[in-house]
Amino acid sequence: MNRKELNDMKARLAEKVEKASDMEVLTGALLALPPGQVKKLLTDETVLAVLRKYGFTE
Question: Cα–Cα distance between 7 and 4 in angstroms, integer?
């Protein structure tokens, strides 16, 4: 494996770690909410911002 391939693999791994960390934060926040509050947290604006971060478009 050459240096470029190794750097590419490190970058992909770092991206996966960031996504996993984001999901842990979201999951923790959702579990801490009282019943009925998820709807207030997951507004269109919030959800679209998260989707855009990972390359999804409207």
Answer: 5
**In terms of Cα–Cα distance, which of 39, 19, 18, 41 is closest to 29?**
41
CB under 8 Å to 19, separation ≥6 — which residues? 54
Q: Is residue 58 part of a domain?
A: no
How many structural domains compose the chain? Answer: 1
Report the pLDDT value the prediction gives residue 40, as an integer from 0 to 100: 78
SS3 55: coil
Residues of the chain with pLDDT under 70: 58
Strand, helix or coil at 54? coil
Domain residues for the domain of 42 are: 3-53
Give the Cα separation of 18 and 10 in Å (integer).
12
